[in-house]
UniProtKB/TrEMBL annotation:
Free-text comment on the cofactor: Binds 2 magnesium or manganese ions per subunit.
Binding annotation for ATP: K141, E178, F179, D187, R211, S212, N213
Gene Ontology biological-process entries: SOS response; translation
Protein name per UniProt: Probable alpha-L-glutamate ligase
Organism this protein belongs to: Flavimaribacter sediminis
Gene: rimK
Residues involved in Mg(2+) 1 binding: D248, E260
Length: 301
């Protein structure tokens, strides 16, 4: 297959591994910088240009769209979809996962375990939001945050109120969630590929850090998960419509709760922690699924 990978940094571990895995299996993978693409949005002749030349038709595209360029990245991906190029993850599914509020609403509709989550627009409703979320400690999250950026732990009701009012006063959209104390600063990342959990790891935050993100100095180790945790991860991926994703869960007293579904999960932490060839399994799944024009949405919606 001729595969395009949308990625701004070709030197990231995940991107190097995906290219290696594709080439080892006899495919041709070209990394294209998402922001250097431009489009001719013409009736019945959708085209993508790159560095002054029209891109050839690809069989499949692997979108590795950074959170900071989600809007433009999804526009480019939709253009590929309109050409009939098969995406590893569809634009609509990525859009769902990047919108924290929408993703929580979709997961809640399907009855998946979630932390108590509240959302309001008016700073004057802070007291009501705090009552719904429960007493401190509480987690305040920016809707557009990623890799633990824009996540604040408020230890007291007073500090929670101050943080919420500050964010809302600045016109920033936030979620307020209960703090799952029993998780002990750890979470579970389950890699779902093609409707199956293929690798799992437990991440633990650095000393004094409640966020377990590896980018924030956390550590990871392989872990076995329970059948209900496995089922939760698979259902979360299906709800988002993602073929490949990382589902982040916490072990609460009442069962697993989903914190986030990541449509471009990093591969370095999970491959090194588990020894599993995740990149190879992703390419293998792409081989089985990629057929011209098979995209469900074809760039719509």
């Amino acid at each position: 297959m001729k595969i395009a990978m949308m990625a701004r940094n070709p030197n990231l571990y995940s991107h190097i591994r995906l290219k290696e895995a594709a080439e080892e299996r006899g495919h041709e993978l070209t990394i294209i910088n998402t922001l250097r693409c431009y489009m001719n949005i013409a009736a019945r002749r959708p085209e993508v240009y790159y560095n002054g030349e029209k891109l050839p038709r690809f069989d499949a595209v692997i979108p590795r769209i950074g959170a900071s360029v989600t809007f433009y990245g999804l526009a480019v991906l939709r253009q590929f979809e309109m050409q009939g190029v098969f995406p590893l993850n569809e634009s609509v599914a990525i859009g769902r996962s990047r919108d924290k509020l929408r993703s929580m609403q979709l997961l809640a509709r399907e009855g998946l375990g979630l932390p108590v989550t509240t959302f309001a627009h008016d700073p004057k409703q802070t007291e009501e939001v705090l009552k719904l979320a429960g007493s401190a400690p509480l987690v305040v999250k920016l809707l557009e945050g990623t890799q633990g950026i824009g996540v604040v732990l408020a230890d007291t009701d007073r500090s929670a109120k101050s943080v919420i009012e500050a964010f809302r006063g600045a016109g920033v959209n936030i979620l307020v969630q209960e703090f799952i104390k029993e998780a002990g600063g750890t979470d579970i990342r389950a890699l779902v590929v093609g409707g199956r959990v293929i690798a799992t790891m437990q991440r633990k935050g650095a000393e004094g850090e409640f966020r377990s993100n590896l980018h924030r100095g956390g550590s990871a180790q392989a872990i076995k998960i329970s059948p209900i945790e496995r089922s939760t991860a698979i259902r979360a991926a299906k709800t988002m419509g993602l073929n490949v994703c990382g589902v982040d869960m916490l072990r609460a007293n009442h069962g697993p709760v989903v914190m986030e579904v990541n449509s471009s999960p990093g591969l370095e932490g999970v491959e090194k922690a588990t020894g599993i060839d995740v990149a190879g399994k992703i390419i293998e799944s792409l081989e089985k699924s990629a057929k011209p024009g098979k995209t469900k949405t074809r760039g719509k919606g």
